[in-house]
Amino acid sequence: MNKKASIDFNQMPDAHGHFGPYGGRFVSETLIYALDELESIYRSLKDDPEFQAQFDYDLAHYVGRPSPLYFAERWTRETGGAKLFLKREDLNHTGAHKINNTIGQALLAKHTGKQRVIAETGAGQHGVATATVAARLGLECHVFMGEEDIQRQSLNVYRMKLLGATVVPVTSGSRTLKDAMNEALRDWVTNVDDTFYIIGTCAGPHPYPELVRNFQSVIGREARQQSLAQTGKLPDALVACVGGGSNAIGLFHPFLADESVAMYGVEAGGFGLGTGKHAAPLNDGIPGVLHGNRTYLMEDENGQIIETHSISAGLDYPGVGPEHSWLKDIGRVKYVAIDDDEAMDAFRHLTRIEGIMPALESSHAIAYAEKLARKMDPDQTIVVNLSGRGDKDILTVAEIDGITL
Amino acid sequence: MNRIKQRFEVLKQQGRKALIPYIVLGDPAADVTLPVMHALVEQGADILELGVPFSDPTAEGPVIQKAHERALAHGSSLRDALTLVKQFRETDFTTPVILMGYANPIERLGYQHFIELALDAGIDGVLTVDLPPEEAGEFNQQLGEAGIENIFLLAPTSSDKRQKMVAEMAGGFIYYVSLKGVTGAGNLDVVSVKQHVDHIRTLTDLPVCVGFGIKDGASARAVADLSDGVVVGSVLVSKMAELAARAETSPRAFSQAVSSLVAEMRDALDN
Ligand SMILES: Cc1ncc(COP(=O)(O)O)c(C=O)c1O
Fewest CB within 10 angstroms: A31, A92, B59, B248, which? Predict the structure, then answer.
């Protein structure tokens, strides 16, 4: 732990966007200029009090922050063990943590004067959050979405359309989130002069992992204060699901220097880690280069990215934000996996005993937190990031139940 | 001497421009690529650029993306590219071959291991689309030590500082991307190309070749007049796609189809 204690987590990434061997800027030459431009705008605004005040104002009055830290008393009692607290990102405007980031990036976009924004989306939550800020600022919005995800997240597709966005179906590759990101990168190269790319997670080329983390860190800063106020101490453990890793890094980052706080990132175990049909690169992948950064990936022996599987579209991604790869290697965060069935059980369970319907993504964190709580003492506390609400997943759940709505 | 250097010297003496066709390894079938490579050389190609299929080719437009998908459908890989070039070298000792692709398959083999295999196969240059100078340091040095040219892209958006940085690191030739966009896009602007190429020439003695957006003899000629050569990809690849769509399987048919296109460009460049 001594070595870790000497790391200044706020100094990461380095000037070139590296977290140890991870991160960086692996993109074609044409995009470097856009990334340089984004970085210089972000650097000039990051510590600007006016920018920060605008961000805080929007989070308070438009998103509805701070989100509550809710003590799930009945869930705690029935589980037996540590006290379980839910960080209620599901109560944000548009129903997930994704909006924290899109508010921030939209403010950056406004400063560039670009009139067109693009985004990739898996579950559709980031697409909805982007379409929402675009509507508010009067920006043209194009959201790239894999054809398969368009099928399983049809409610969010319609929401985006109502918000005035164009949803562009992506038919290349595996037709899911990774391919949507490829297509967004291609669009950006082509329309780089007038287009701002709002990436939805803490992945992609530098400076995205850093700026998405910083915008999402409001989650952890609030949770820290709320824990101190409600329990008189820091939590003993944090649990969050990891797709690209933005809700997790947002919760974890403000606690990284607190050695007493254990952290668990929960990846999608799909049909089970042993089956190879999952989306858990930190559990069962190796480092490589995709979407502009070096990170753990799911790939075959030839370096081709392989198709992932998860019941939750938002976790169905073969990579992960580079900071998580680094936090894994230095041992600061432990990365575990929860499979489809366990996540479904957790979805039903939390809905029935707390009256809170979690997103299928968040259900992975719920399932792991329950296992963890049982191994801990009643005077210990766990904060679980409830990254989003489950309304968008109702069709998926109904289908599993054999019901057509 | 590296074959790319040699080839540009000869071209310079002859006052000719380089014609650099691009095809994707294993598109649409494993046995097509080798005969097509030889056919391209016969029709006057100076340097061959062999695309290495990748699952996520973010710099490619739809035409070349689909070629990657066709090649991956039967498992074409970087290892196959190395084997194939070795076969090509059994009968062709002089035509330079460049592998163009993405970083991840190379990282998976390991840079050093890849370079050993590339040397053994007779590969002359490498162009890794998503490995800009900032990330290429170690690989660039290892390639330099092995005598394999590391070819870099410059774009209309590259700042002056970056153009200098690339000019310092680059080997073989500078590949100027003629437009903001993916491969196969149609918005070629000859005036802008001239400005950029002229500027790059003030920074380096390396030849400057232009690619992306060259569709026929006329556009090849227009661009070659301003530079040292042209890279032609999507038109050839879409010809391959046409035949593949008709379920054509004879390697000869593919060779003939691309031959006529390349012959037309050669003619436009030379006359
Ligand atoms: C509710 C919810 N949670 C989590 C995720 C996963 O993203 P990340 O790992 O970036 O938080 C998503 C993505 O769509 C989501 O919608």
Answer: B248
* Three-state secondary structure call for residue B242: helix
Q: Which residue type sits at A188? A: W
Catalytic residue among A83, A98, A328, A392: A98
Pairing type for strands A83-88 and A69-71 reads antiparallel
Report pLDDT for A1: 43
ipTM for the predicted complex: 0.95
Between strands A262-270 and A334-339, the pairing is: parallel
Please indicate whether, in this complex, the C-beta atoms of B132 and A27 are within 8 angstroms of each other.
yes
The Cα of A33 is separated from the nearest Cα of chain B by a number of Å equal to: 6
Chain A: closest CA distance from residue B67 (Å): 12
Q: What atom in ligand 1 is closest to the CA of residue A359?
A: 1
Query: CB of A249 closer than 6 A to ligand 1?
Result: no
Give me A7's structure tokens: 């790391």
pLDDT at A178 over 50: yes
Interatomic CA distance for residues A379 and B56, integer angstroms: 48
**B210-266 per-position pLDDT tens digit:** 998 888 999 999 999 999 999 999 999 999 999 999 999 999 999 999 999 999 999
**Environment class of A106 (CB within 10 Å of its CB; exposed 0-12, middle 13-18, buried 19+):** buried
Question: pLDDT tens-digit profile of A336-368?
Answer: 999 999 999 999 999 999 999 999 999 999 999
| Residue B231: strand, helix, or coil | strand
Is A269 in contact with A280 (CB distance < 8 Å)?
yes
User: Do residue B157 and residue A33 have CB atoms under 8 angstroms apart?
Assistant: yes
pLDDT, averaged across chain A: 96
Residue A217 annotated in active site: no
3 state SS of B18:
strand
Chain A residues closer than 8 Å to B181 by CB: 30, 189-190
